[in-house]
Amino acid sequence: MKFLKPAEGRTVDQPDGTPWPPEGMEAPDTLFVRRRIADGDLIEADVPAEEASTPKPKGGK
Which ranges of the chain would DSSP assign to H, the alpha helix? Predict the structure, then answer.
């Protein structure tokens, strides 16, 4: 997955119609996402420090 955010001055809808968060989010490598990148609507971004440092649960018990 890539961390993507809308390009400066752009508003991008997700496939379900909700707006893409301006701060960005992780997105799977789908045709929809690849088209938005190719069109310049979405750009790769660094994961925000607070999100990057939060450990993800292992899904144990």
Answer: 31-38, 49-52
